[in-house]
Amino acid sequence: MRSPVQIALRLLGSILGMGAVACDGGHSSPLYGAPTYGAPYAEYKLSGKVVDAGTSSGIPGIALTFQGSTVSSGPDGAWAMDITTLPCESACALSAKDTDGPSHGSYTDLDVALTPTQSSPGNGAWNQGVFEQENIQVSLVPKP
To answer: Among 20, 78, 100, 111, which residue carries the largest CB count within 10 Å?
Structure first.
């Protein structure tokens, strides 16, 4: 039997639109089922190189952003990121932006479509698994 406090909390939760409030110590409720918390996530392992589209030389200092996480290309243009984030909805994209000014040349920004391959399955709940893509070449065009 529920205590008056549990009943009051359940009523308050219903009024506030929180139907799955766990008032019974986190155990499932016949009325609402098991409470669940969280969001889906996936691990992405991405790597590649940023190059000048005309000379194929590596470009250092380019900011590469994927799902809100940013890394910079190294001295030879190489970069890598290993992040856990929300899964891509319909398509994955990597944004490349020249943020270091003219010190290594000025380049136009570019969005690159990605097709990471699932290398490890998720757990059937929030974890969607591990996705990988290597040797992503980002070819930037110098600004006029």
So the answer is: 100
